[in-house]
Amino acid sequence: MIICVSAGIFFFFAGAVGFLRFPDFYSRMHATGKGDTFGILLCCIGLSMYNLAAHPSWQLGVVQSVKVLSIAVFWFLASPTATHALTRSAFVSGVKPWTRDGIPVREREEEEGAP
After folding, report:
1. From 59, 64, 77, 103, which residue has the greatest number of CB atoms within 10 Å?
2. At what angle do helices 58-93 and 25-54 cross, to 10 degrees?
């Protein structure tokens, strides 16, 4: 129980660190999108196990665990969709990805002759 919740908190923290450390919008969205999705999934699994173990009435524990897991399933579907929508809108708006040499990706592809 505590291991799952602790691992989930670790992924939340790792996503926050990635948000602060990565150089551009796309890398930051990747870090936060992956970190919060996996973090909440692990936290919800840990809370479900706690609900099953803590309640003397198994029916109440099962009902609460199903509710928590349904939140996890919703988040598992909604978070990547929202991350994709935000990243796609940034791409359409013209936000350029970071590169080590400072040349935008589209210009580099044109120089290399990519279609």
Report:
1. 64
2. 180
